[in-house]
From TrEMBL:
Pfam families: DUF421, YetF_N. GO terms for cellular component: plasma membrane. Its main location: membrane. This is Membrane protein. It is found in: Cell membrane. Residues 12-68 form the YetF-like N-terminal transmembrane domain. Keywords: Cell membrane, Membrane, Transmembrane, Transmembrane helix. Residues 78-146 form the YetF C-terminal domain. The lineage of its organism: Bacteria, Pseudomonadati, Pseudomonadota, Gammaproteobacteria, Pseudomonadales. The chain crosses the membrane at residues 55-75. InterPro entries: DUF421 (IPR007353), UPF0702_alpha/beta_dom_sf (IPR023090), YetF_N (IPR048454).
Length: 147
């Protein structure tokens, strides 16, 4: 039970810290961000291992995490439903220049996020110039301009 509580506490603290730091996609990761993530990873591993810092316990934790990842990827290959549950699917957030506010709210995005993606990808400056904006599974926003 102690491991479960420790894992939950670390999860909540990391979520809070990353929320304060702001959203950033992996494509925009800077050197500083990478170093910060490595340091956070080191601190997190200490919390995950608890009092047992032995090589055996560290290897066991790593093997367990990799096995879970491989297991999930195998199940996702065989089950589209499970893949959708774990990874989600693409979500249309703008359709023919109309913002779908409920979908934006569920995705925790706002119009400025869409316009930022539209400016950087297509040079679009107004929502009504967008035929479709799609929040992809990887968190990026794809923009298809109107004709």
């Amino acid at each position: 039970m102690d491991s479960v509580l420790r894992a939950a506490a670390i999860y909540l603290v990391l979520m809070l810290l990353f929320k304060i730091a702001g959203r950033r996609s992996l494509a925009e990761l800077t050197t500083f961000d990478l170093v910060l993530l490595m340091v956070i990873g080191e601190a997190t591993q200490q919390a995950l291992l608890g009092d047992d810092f032995s090589l055996t316990n560290a290897v066991l934790v790593i093997v367990t995490l990799i096995a879970i990842d491989i297991g999930f990827s195998l199940v996702k290959q065989r089950s589209p439903w499970f893949s959708r549950v774990l990874d989600g699917g693409p979500t249309i957030v703008v359709e023919h220049g109309n913002v779908l506010h409920e979908r934006l709210k569920r995705a925790r995005l706002d119009e400025s996020d869409i316009l930022e993606a539209a400016r950087s990808a297509q040079g679009i400056v107004e929502i009504n110039q967008i035929k479709f904006a799609i929040l992809e599974r990887n968190g990026k926003i794809s923009v298809i301009p109107s004709d």
